[in-house]
C-alpha cells in the first residue's frame, strides 16, 4: 500500500479523503500547511502527494518544492479547480503529474 500526503486547506475535505484512503489500506497524512507538509515529507516515506493548488492561502508550488527536496521519488499530483491551460502547464513544469 502507499503512503499518501494530502495537502489542502479544507479540513473536512482532507480528513474525508484520508479516511477513504485508510479504508482502502493506504497510510494517509492529511495536512493543511507548507510547514506540516515539510514535516510529513521528511518524517515519513511519502509515495504520493495530493496537493491542492488553487486555494488562496496555500502555495501548492511551494509545497511541491518542499516535497521534492525531502522525497524526490514521490509522485506529485496536482488537484486544481481550474481548467486554465496556463495553470496546467505551470503544474507540469513544477513536476506534478
Task: Give the gist of this structure.
Helices cover 44% and strands 21% of the residues.
Could you describe the 3D structure shown?
- The chain has 97 residues and is α/β, with parallel strands linked by helices.
- Helix content is 44%, strand content 21%.
- The chain is built from four helices and four strands, in the order βαβαβαβα.
- Strands 2-1-3-4 form a four-stranded parallel sheet, with helices on both faces.
- Helix 1 (11-23) links the parallel strand 1 (3-7) and strand 2.
- Helix 2 runs parallel beside helix 3 (60-70).
- The mean pLDDT is 88.
Multimeric state: single chain
| H/E element sequence | EHEHEHEH
Mean pLDDT: 88
Strand runs, count:
4
Helix run count: 4
Give the fraction of residues assigned to helices. Answer: 40-55%
Biggest beta sheet attributes:
4 strands, parallel
Morphology: globular
Across the major sheet, the strand order is 2-1-3-4
Beta content comes to 15-25%
What class, by secondary structure content?
A: alpha/beta
Blueprint (SSEs and pairs):
Elements: E1 3-7, H1 11-23, E2 27-31, H2 34-43, E3 48-52, H3 60-70, E4 75-79, H4 85-93
Parallel strand pairs: 1-2, 1-3, 3-4
Helix pairs in contact: 2-3
Amino acid at each position: 500500500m502507499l503512503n499518501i500526503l494530502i495537502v489542502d486547506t479544507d479540513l473536512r475535505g482532507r480528513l474525508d479523503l484520508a479516511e477513504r484512503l485508510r479504508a482502502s489500506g493506504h497510510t494517509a497524512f492529511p495536512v493543511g500547511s507548507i510547514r506540516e507538509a515539510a514535516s510529513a515529507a521528511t518524517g515519513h516515506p511519502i509515495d504520493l502527494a495530493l496537493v491542492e493548488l488553487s486555494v488562496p492561502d496555500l502555495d501548492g508550488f511551494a509545497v511541491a518544492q518542499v516535497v521534492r527536496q525531502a522525497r524526490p521519488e514521490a509522485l506529485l499530483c496536482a488537484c486544481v479547480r481550474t481548467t486554465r491551460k496556463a495553470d496546467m502547464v505551470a503544474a507540469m513544469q513544477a513536476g506534478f503529474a
